[in-house]
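Posting for a labmate who doesn't have an account.
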Amino acid sequence: QVQLVESGGGLVQAGGSLRLSCAASGSIFSINAMGWYRQAPGKQRELVAAITSGGSTNYADSVKGRFTISRDNAKNTVYLQMNSLKPEDTAVYYCMGVVVVTTFQEYDYWGQGTQVTVSS
């Protein structure tokens, strides 16, 4: 059993900052890629940022230069620092981890989501 639990969402004014955290727990051998996705009302879920176990990152064009993804492998935790927030960043943010549960088995696990609302 593996759980991912997000925290740090909330309401912020445009131009403000928020930091999301996502901690993985349970029967974890290791975690490969971790990422943040978001889904706004009426839209499809989209990738915001991802990070490999080695620290390589990639970002959606819409957040480059404003958001930073990082992770603490010892804590099985991934972070998303969001600066210069815009109303269009409003969405439910989900973390995802590619979790290795045994030597030969890995699965995608998702958190429950955390709401981020940016007011204009």
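Reply:
Got it, the structure tokens are right above this. The first strand starts at residue 2 and ends at 7.
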